[in-house]
Amino acid sequence: MRTQKLKHFLHAEAVARGLTAGGVRGEAAGRLAGQMARVAARLRADGQAVEAPACAFFVPGRIEVLGKHTDYAGGSSLVCAIERGFCVIALPEAATRLHLTAAETGETVSLALREDLAPRPGHWSTYAATVARRAARNFPGALRGGRFAFASDLPQAAGMSSSSALVVAVFLALSALGDLTRHPAYRQHIDGKERLAHYLGCVENGQTFGTLVGDRGVGTFGGSEDHTAILCAVPGTLRRYAYAPTRFERAVPQPAGYVFVLAASGVTAEKAGAAQARYNRAARLAAAAAQAWRAATGRDDPHLGAALAGPVFARDRMLQALRAHAPAGFAAADLIDRFEHFYTENALILPAAVEALAAGDLPAFGALVDRSQRAAERLLKNQIEETIFLARQARALGAVAASAFGAGFGGSVWALVQAGGAEDFLEAWAGRYAAAFPEAARRSSFFVEQSGPAAFQLDVT
Questions:
Q1: Helix (H) or strand (E) holding 261
Q2: CA dihedral 117, 123, 126, 128 (to 10 degrees)
Q3: Closest CA to 255 of 165, 170, 166, 354
Q4: Is the Cβ–Cβ distance between 117 and 155 less than 8 Å?
């Protein structure tokens, strides 16, 4: 384990230099340095010695530029990290327990590092407990207890991957304390960041990864898009990945002179809470559509992405299969809508949008993003009045492109705007939203972002 001392993280200026070295730019480095210093101060207030060995991580949130609900169905998405996220400090302890403290509130949860660990439903610690339980199962004898503290400036349950960022943060800290990369099972199955992202997606959704046996996860049937963006992002770029398994496809620069303005709608969609059933229904529909395809063709394509890439795929043949072989409990019309969304987003919009970005054709990119937003409203059916309004108003105010992103049923909208006018745009966008949805607007937040670095361990010496 590469450690420093807790006292090193109490000094915001030194931490800011370490964040800058890791790829965080400008004002964001200072803001996050203050956040990291508050985490260190919480550990000091809880009685930890300044000379105690410690390791620290920055774990970002992400923007899903395109690729709505495609990852778990074997599709692709275009993603980037942002310069907001979790600041985590971990101190090793002899006991085989994880003590995890939310620095802003002081709330502490103590978790046994055992494979039968039961989560606390509806609580943020569910994600940490899921990681601890799965790591104990998959890497027996390797886990080392510790005292962790964290703070985050990500809006919660807003589509920016706050839950997956916590999963990644807890695993990276546990891995550092227990030196998991040396464990035989880790070395056999996880040979790079993309494989780690795929594994952590399986930790969250409960699936088995190779011979690393799964369990119930957190209760959602998601994929590894979030974990991939968090672990594999590169500052200044948007990166296209395919999933199930995770693999890099292409990178394009963030358009020069443009930034993202993000609007967290104030309507939360916690995947481990009330929105879970709606989120899981989208995943179940995609799986049922693939099942109908297998029944009709006799093929063994595991998901829609594989079906589309196979030698016998044709759209009309898929539609016929969905009408004739809808699994019990699923209406053919719902399966057709789910397939049509996946096909439109993954096969028609995403490749063309990446080409438009690579060519610097922002009007074409904006038109394709508009099409993606409409498809989410009409076919995926995961949009609400607030996110639809925000996307439309962003375009009306001059954004070259704008779309809702994340799980849906609430969440956030991104808008790509010229950097020089970003603050004026933000003010006007927020004003229109407050006038139209005053209750949600009181819980909303608007801020300017650019594509940032992947998660990294902080070095301040």
A1: strand 258-264
A2: -100
A3: 354
A4: no
How does pLDDT run across 388-421, given as a tens digit for each residue?
Answer: 999 999 999 999 999 999 888 999 999 999 999 9
DSSP E strands: which ranges in 304-383? none
User: Distance between CA atoms of 89 and 54, rounded to whole angstroms?
Assistant: 7
Measure the CA–CA gap between 261 and 433, rounded to whole angstroms: 14
Inter-helix orientation angle 125-138/162-178, to 10°:
40
The tens digit of pLDDT for each residue in 277-312 reads 878 899 999 999 999 999 999 999 999 999 999 999
Q: Count the helix, strand and coil residues of the chain and give each as a percent rounded to the nearest 5.
A: 45, 20, 35
User: Which residue is associated with the tokens 């400008």?
Assistant: 26
Q: Choose among 313, 375, 377, 321: nearest CA to 344.
A: 375
Residue 141 CB contacts under 8 Å (≥ 6 apart), including other chains: none
The two tokens of residue 307 are 């079906």
Residue 33: which residues within 8 A CB-CB, separation 6 or more?
12, 13, 15, 16, 19
At 152-180, the pLDDT tens digits run 999 998 999 999 999 999 999 999 999 99
Q: Cis ω on the peptide bond leading into residue 53 (within 30° of 0)?
A: no
Structure tokens at 355: 């080409």
How remote is the C-alpha of 424 from its chain's centroid?
28
The count of other CB atoms within 10 Å of the CB of residue 160 is 29
Taking the CB of residue 419, how many other CB atoms lie within 10 A of it? Answer: 13
d(CA 199, CA 203): 6
Rg (CA), the chain: 22
